[in-house]
């Protein structure tokens, strides 16, 4: 199987920004498109940003064993479809999964050879500022995300690699170095 990289961390830590830069800097690395039950945000396309599924379809696919991992986060479900991962690994591509901590723990069970990377904020206050600044969630949702983040931050020790996203360029350089080391090794 091709190399699988798992990137996780709390909501608002900058995973998406780091991943976009990583994909630009590491040729051949592919991002697995996750499935979710949340509604698309403006500009998000089905099959590109996420596979947007109904609650019923997601539950059916969980029951049928279609997911490598799945988790519930802020009242919505997210997961990695086996077919999505298999399509990319069968083609020989190294694959990147952007998933929640809960899902990253499941991946450890099903794909112990996966390289697991935790993205951490420099502080809880910086994380709050980022969540507010992106303007995608109301106050109640931001508070829920911060409560979940507190639990997720406690899990960093479970990961082989922790990248602190304080200065974006430094975090990108560190992330690229981790991925290249595992691809070249």
From TrEMBL:
Question: Which top-level group of life is the source organism from?
Answer: Bacteria
Q: Which residues bind ATP?
A: 9-16
Is this entry keyworded Transport?
A: no
Which residues belong to the signal peptide in this entry? none
EC number(s) given by UniProt: 2.7.4.8
InterPro entries assigned: GK/Ca_channel_bsu, Guanylate_kin-like_dom, Guanylate_kinase, Guanylate_kinase_CS, P-loop_NTPase
> Which positions fall inside the Guanylate kinase-like domain?
2-180
GO cellular component terms, A-Z: cytosol
Q: Which UniProt keywords are present, listed alphabetically?
A: ATP-binding, Cytoplasm, Kinase, Nucleotide-binding, Transferase
The Swiss-Prot or TrEMBL record describes its family as follows: Belongs to the guanylate kinase family.
The protein's matches in NCBIfam families, at most eight in alphabetical order, are given as: guanyl_kin
HAMAP family linked: Guanylate_kinase
Function according to Swiss-Prot or TrEMBL: Essential for recycling GMP and indirectly, cGMP.
Q: What is this protein called?
A: Guanylate kinase
| Species annotation | Paraconexibacter algicola
The uppermost taxa in this organism's lineage are:
Bacteria, Bacillati, Actinomycetota, Thermoleophilia, Solirubrobacterales
């Amino acid at each position: 199987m091709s190399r699988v990289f798992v990137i996780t961390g709390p909501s608002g830590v900058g995973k998406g920004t780091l991943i976009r830069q990583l994909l630009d800097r590491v040729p051949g690395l592919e991002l697995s498109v996750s499935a979710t039950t949340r509604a698309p945000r403006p500009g998000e396309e089905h099959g590109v940003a996420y596979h947007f599924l109904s609650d019923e379809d997601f539950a059916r696919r969980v029951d049928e064993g279609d997911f490598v991992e799945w988790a519930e986060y802020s009242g919505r479900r997210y997961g990695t479809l086996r077919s999505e991962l298999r399509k990319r690994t069968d083609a020989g591509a190294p694959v990147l999964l952007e998933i929640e901590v809960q899902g990253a723990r499941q991946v450890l069970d099903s794909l112990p050879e996966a390289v697991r990377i935790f993205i951490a904020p420099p502080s809880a206050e910086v994380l709050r500022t980022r969540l507010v600044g992106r303007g995608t969630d109301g106050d109640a949702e931001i508070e829920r995300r911060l409560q979940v983040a507190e639990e997720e931050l406690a899990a960093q020790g479970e990961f082989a690699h922790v990248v602190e996203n304080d200065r974006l360029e430094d975090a990108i350089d560190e992330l690229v170095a981790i991925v290249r080391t595992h691809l070249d090794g």
